[in-house]
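Team,

Forwarding the record for the chain on the shared tracking sheet. I've put the sequence and predicted structure together so nobody has to dig through attachments.
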Amino acid sequence: MTYAELRAALRHEHLPLAYCDLDLLAANARSLIERAGSLPIRLASKSIRCRDILRRVQAMSPVFQGILCYSAAEAAHLAADAFKDLVVAYPTVDRRDLDLACTAIAGGAEICLMVDDPQQLPFLSEAATRAGVTLPVAIDLDMSSTLPGLHFGVRRSPVAGVEAAVALADAVAGTPHLRLDGLMGYEAQLAGLQDLVPGQRLKSAAVRALKRRSQPEVFARRAAVVAAIKARGHELRFVNGGGTGSLEQTRTDPAVTELAAGSGLYGPTLFDGYDSFRPQPAAGFALPIVRRPIANIYTCFGGGYIASGSPGRDRQPTPYLPAGATLLANEGCGEVQTPVNYAGPEILALGDPIFFRHAKAGELCEHFNELVLLAGAAVVGRAPTYRGDGRSFV
């Protein structure tokens, strides 16, 4: 949509607001399906954080199977709304959250929790015992690469190879009320690292080279771990891998049975700089212009929705429409106001919106109670976010 169309569609809405363009969301979903090849996609809820959007995407295609949650309490919340096949991607030892998940399992929910350390197992076993259930668990495998002078990847799981993975699988099998259900090997350095960033030609080339070097190593590690666990007599219902940025690569690994993706549905700015794909900007937010200190500066209310990760300018929201609007380098996005530089052809007045794109996908939903749903340049509905559900899981 153009600026004029988007402004007209939201003319009577209260600002600030967050929105989702359902037409662009569907286009992004089709792109993920094409890029996944023959493998199913488990939706990463941390990048979506809205039950309505999760359900809409799952209804688009049988390729979207199951949810990759980020919190045990969140999984229980989704299970209460009839979501199935919920895998929690991050370990927890919190008694309350474990009890919520195990109580949901006792009521028929399909929830699998993540482990990467034998010391986590007693916490899970005790919760499963209290609920009288057998708790499915999955092993989180480290998929980073150690190169000369460089750790290429993220610091997550301590399970870095076959020996540790088999030992943990044995420990799970030997722990009362637990059973091994799956394995997750998320190659973050392939899936979540931009490799074609404008103005960063040399860095982008270096990242692409590092990705080419890392991929065969970590894929071989994941395949070896899967083979060793199975040879030990353990069963794996699923082997999860990849993310929005690596679907084409991860689908070629025969050890992987399913992919994960979420950010590619909303299309935030940190996914603009990839060589192999470019998602549509399906989600964003609108801030109202509340003052005009000089002719070409329009100050908006709100906007300080800074993304997590290593601090930098790329973590700030980006003015999207009208085209040509930019942040002020010495102010950026503020706690309660954001000045924007604009000298283009659009006539802007007090109360008019300026539209922004956020840097990371699901974190936008932590700032708004709902997403205003758009289709065909018109408002067609509203969807509560997790915040609108009255829930905060992290």
